[in-house]
From TrEMBL:
Pfam family, one: RRF
Family of the protein in this entry: Belongs to the RRF family.
Organism classification: Eukaryota, Metazoa, Ecdysozoa, Arthropoda, Hexapoda
Segments forming domain Ribosome recycling factor: 68-227
Signal peptide positions on this chain: none
Keywords associated with the record: Protein biosynthesis
GO biological process entries: translation
Entry superkingdom: Eukaryota
Listed GO CC annotations: mitochondrion
Gene: LOC100645872
Stated name of the protein: Ribosome-recycling factor, mitochondrial
A Gene Ontology molecular function term of the record: ribosomal large subunit binding
Amino acid sequence: MNLSFLRNCIIELKLISKHVRCLHFLGSSRNVLMSSTNTCTNLYDFSPKLYNVERMMSQFDGAIERYKDEMVKNLAVRTRVGAVEELTITFEDEEHNLEELVDINRKPNMVLLNASAFPQIIPNILEALSKSNMNLNPQQDGTTIYIPLPKVTKEHRESLAKTAKQYFVKCKNIICDIRNEHIRDLKKKEGLPKDLTFKAESYVSALQKQYVNKAEELLKAKQKELLGES
């Protein structure tokens, strides 16, 4: 028997066997609902032909981490002076932390900003403070900005809870965009059986739902904290 022919037959058999394992895996609802770590491990056998699992999981995880960071940084019942110092100021298409641009002096229930080094940036600082979701009411006197630290009110708590919902919607949309990106890439693959493509799409959609549920759980916990509910 021709050795080249035999070698090609063996290769074909391996490919068929691999394809069957793929279908079996994607058809398992247990594996679809596994944790992200275990999912990545089990997908490596066949994923390169379908989608980049490491990249996809990194994108999903990154969306959740950014969502958590935004809530920690911007959604505190009591305004942290540190949050004021770290506030992002955009000037001439560049972003800076507030503490890089002004001298900051802490007083009881008050923060003073000395912007004499960059007086031209004061309007940008005032705008950023007003839009910071920290319930701040900055007052300007020359190159000095006075920021009274607000008292905690029911209205402030409710406003923060609404902002938390906005962050959730943003995160949810990002997760949806990630899912759509990988589905589009999957549909561009040539030569994949339709049933495999369908089940692979279902897997990505299941992951999307899993991450959205995780984001929603974070939202509920944060809103409960912000509203002072036990």
